[in-house]
Amino acid sequence: MTNEQTHPVPDSSIVPQGLHVVAKPVGPLCNLNCEYCFYLEKKALFAPDERYSMSDEVLRAFIINYISSQPTPVVEFVWQGGEPTLLGIDFFKKIIELQKPFAGTKTVTNSLQTNGTLLTDKWCEFLKMHNFMVGISLDGPKEIHDRYRLDRKGAGSFDLVMCGLKLLQKHEVEYNVLACVARETAHKPLDVYLFFKSQGVEFIQFSPVVERLPDSSSTELGLRLAGPASLKEKKEDTEVTPWSVIPEEYGDFLIAIYEEWVRNDVGKIFVMNFEWALNAWIGNPSPVCVHAKQCGHSLVIEHNGDVFACDHCVYPQYKLGNITVDNLRDMAEKSLQSGFGVIKETALPGWCRECDVLAACQGGCPKHRFVTTYHDEPGLHYLCEGYKKFFLHIRKYLRVMATLLENGLPASRVMDAIKGPLVIRLKNGDQ
Ligand code: SF4
Ligand code: SF4
Ligand code: SF4
């Protein structure tokens, strides 16, 4: 799994219309030991003899409750970890069998987020047969990926992940690549992007790695990383881990890739971060929580049935209940009533409210809003400098793409516009 995981959020902005739950059937258990992982440490929150495997009772309760709590015709299950494939194919066969009788007229879809190292032909046959969408974590070419994504002996995982990727391609399983951008990764944007391109990857999402050194409350819990920022107080320690990306360098990383992409690959390669930006520019709500106005629509369920406000907030104070006794919609409502959702918007510092790119950024994930602004206000995102640089830089391209789309033309014509003067016949007859 990756660091700044960005969950899709339902189209609607209120819970009764849709609710997204990420399931962690194996809890924080993983066969790898990535340097920047923020899941592994969560073992400290469970008993030493914890059995990290979702029981039949919890699985059944979750499936029934999740399907029935969705008013939408499509119910999207997302399975992640730790490393969910550790549970074996039979566990996932059980999921499919349990979903069938409760789906009714609804369409049920499944996604699996994996580090790819345990994939086999059998796994891929299964994933293909049941139309799983697979997210595979790969940070770039070997020397970049192996810098942080290590196994338990400290060896790089690149070769195994690439075997997994090739198997997904061989079996034509739908997949996307989730690439973490840690400190050193950010120095090699084109190495990363061109590598993905050379491997035939068409869907990519970049996730910036941001973590702080532990504060007193996380130390008390036995964690090695700090929990979510307090958006209203300035007292937080803001020292980040050595693997956290430098804000401006994250902006430069995205810009370098965007410049390459916008000249050659629009409409052929889908970099989700770029798609979200265009989406925001044309006035649509963000499909991902990080750049949505509010939080509160993406719960997470742990292997033992405990439900938390989101995957970035698996801490005792964010626990909403347990699936074996509580209802998902009630738990989501409880989360919203606690203010978890709106605080992202209401606690925005003036610096963000007056920002030219607020519509695209929306202040970023509250967990990482631990910086104080130049005007001494708390609650600014650590990556602000990078976000702003990136969004400001791409505005000129977004403007052209939005005009193309408004006039019924594909956004990919922006590549022609860059090569030379582009004449667009506008809908009202102007040029
Ligand atoms: S693959 Fe790496 S980042 Fe993902 S859960 Fe395992 S150790 Fe953590
Ligand atoms: S770019 Fe910075 S100032 Fe602008 S909305 Fe994002 S975090 Fe706030
Ligand atoms: S805190 Fe909000 S923005 Fe951050 S991961 Fe959770 S739901 Fe998404």
Describe the structure in your own words.
By secondary structure, the chain is of the alpha/beta class. It is 35% helix and 12% strand. Strands 7-6-5-4-3-2-1-8-9-10 form a ten-stranded mixed β-sheet. Helix 1 (56-68) runs parallel beside helix 2 and helix 8 (247-264) runs parallel beside helix 14. The chain is globular and about 65 Å long.
What Rg is obtained from the alpha carbons, in whole angstroms? 21 Å
Elements, N to C (H/E)? EHEHEHEHHEHEHHEHEEEHHHHHH
Q: Which structural class do you get from the secondary structure elements?
A: alpha/beta
User: Span between N and C termini?
Assistant: 48 Å
Number of helices: 15
